[in-house]
Amino acid sequence: MSSVDRLRALVVPLVEDRGLELYDLEQSGSTLQVLVSRPGGVDLEALSELSRAVSRTLDEHDPIPGRYVLEVSSPGLERPLRRPDHYRGAVGAVVSIKTVAGTEGDRRARGVLLDADDEAATVALDGGGERRIDYRDVERARTVFEWDATSKADARARRAPGPTTGEAVTAADPRSGT
Q1: What string of DSSP letters covers 126-148?
Q2: Predicted pLDDT at 178
Q3: Which domain holds residue 128?
Q4: Which has more confidence, 156 or 50?
Q5: 69 and 7, same structural domain?
Q6: Could you say which of 13, 112, 120, 148 would form a disulfide bridge with 134 (CB–CB 3.0 to 4.6 Å)?
Q7: Looking at the structure, do residues 31 and 68 belong to the same domain, yes or no?
Q8: What is the pTM of this model?
């Protein structure tokens, strides 16, 4: 059993006992990252409680030699895509995929994820067309959160109290002298 499998065996029951879902568990160097989700989102209290429980369990079982940093969080708005189930859960979302050097085609692909199976993902590219990308060719992938394109001025105008009678409001431009 690999060290990540041992860690997963310790962490999954703690996650599930709190009504959360383990999105990902990754050990990179001396950092153990535990990403959890829940329909409707994960609040800070749930993350804090889980962090304390995981820390106690790791201290008790000592599965990581030496010092380590424990990070417990939600995957966030722009979720990493590392496993086929991550891709399947993101079908219909906008994704950004960077392929490893030497992969045929452009190294970067961005668009709507159309399909995902156990071998590859298919993306409707922003520039047109579709591309099927084998997971073995993926260096890094994530969902893309698209911010509302509303400008700050438009947002302020919507919040500001305006005329109630429908009359036009004009403002003098100090640069024009009017």
Answers
A1: TTSSEEEEEGGGEEEEEE-----
A2: 44
A3: 84-143
A4: 50
A5: yes
A6: 120
A7: yes
A8: 0.73
